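Methyl-accepting chemotaxis protein
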Amino acid sequence: MKFLRDAKILVKLAIPLLIVALAAGGFILYARASLIAQSEQTRHIIDVQAKRLALILGLQIDVSEMSVQARNLVLETRDSQLAGYETRIKQAKAHAFGQIDTLGKLADTPERRAANAELSQTLTALGAVIDRVIASAEEGNSELGRDILLSDGNPLRAKLWELAQARIDVLTAELQQERDASEQSAARATLTLVAAASSGLVAAIGAGVAVVVLGVTAPLKRLVRTLERMGHGEIDSEIAEAARGDEIGAVGRAVEGIKRMVAAEAAEQAEMRRRADAAASAERRRARAELADSFEQAMVGIVGAVSSSAVELQTAAQGMTDTASIAAMQAATVAAAAEEAAANVQTVAAAAEELGTSVQEIGRQVTGSAALTRTAAQEAGETTQLVQALNQTSAEIGEMVGLIANIASQTNLLALNATIEAARAGEAGRGFAVVASEVKELAGQTARVTDEITGQIGAIRAVTENAVAAIGGITNRIGEIDGVTASIAAAVEEQGAATQEIVRNVAQAASGTGEVTSNIVGVAEASEATGAAAAQVLGAAAALSDQSGLLNAEVARFLNGIRAA
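Predicted structure tokens:
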């Protein structure tokens, strides 16, 4: 509460804007971090898991190629064809070892390294058996080579096949786990963004309302009510806003000064009325005493009474002149105080105008906040473009899976051709037909794996679409923040109206001080008129005294005349 009393209005109104800006920045950073995490997961699937799966499938194809060519070698009766079979066997063998070496580079756990070592050992053993088969074929002993291939080669090939299939099952399970983790991460990010956006919006609105109501509107209303009571003559109420350190405190202190001036003016007017009443009362008592003396002196003689009355009238006129002079001086003092009050009122008017300027500056700051909100919306749009790029990357993964499916289809055609050739060979091609059936099964497994990868890629694309929807929600929240900014601007306009009301009340106070000045001028003029009238009375008393002397002389002459008569 002390901060709301002492901070400037511009600082108070900047608090909700700062909350909005911090919340928007946090939302964008969190969304960007979530998208980067999703991208890392997708990159791991593409660069590591999918590559591992492709290498295992390629290894199976190479092993099948080695077995098929070895069987062709022992079944071939033409010496001219043996070199071609040996070349294909060596190529498939070298390619298979290359696949295992690449898998070793991608191994990141002891389990994977152990599995790769077992694959390498089994492939080495199978290669040694096939080398023995090649040596038997070169010696012309195809029957021995066939026996070696059936007794020693087939178990090793089956074991190698089982090891590769186990690796495929593990990779499939890991891909499923990574897909589930990606979906859960996207759901958590969406929920967090929605909750954080709602909380930030509520906090910004609450802070704005609290600042405007508690820090600006309420104290201004109290000042307006204080001015209204002062206009009705109530000057005893305390002005708590004068202790504030903001612009409203400056206005409150100015109003406090006006209250002191009005109180001083009222006290001076009361003192003037008291002195005037005391002077009139004393004058009435003295007049009654003089009238009693006049009646008493009337017993002495009419002429002496008139003379005494003239002297007393001169004294009363002089007293009235003195009283009028005192009243004129006091009227001048009150007029000076009224002019000082008018100057204070002008100071309050200037402070009110400065408050209006501050309100206009707040309006400009609110406009700047709207610009920040629009910038946040633009950054959210850029984040949406990043998600769309991630979706495009998933589509490229789909193309790679399609390429693997095409390879499986070609392998299936190769197995079909091998089956046809085995059928043509009759009894001698039975073993070749078995190998062709296994190759066909391998192609079918490859197709199923590619279907599973396609489904996982579809799930990833669905997650990215959810991320796009979440970012759209963020954009909508930013639009709501823009609406809050407009509400704050409307509150600023209401603040301007309240400021104009203060200016109007100050103008009324200035009018009141003007009326006080006019009344004091009237009192001064009345005092001057009273002094002039007292001077006229003084002259009349002097004339009456002269006439009383003449009357006394005429009475004496008349009495002398009577006596003389």
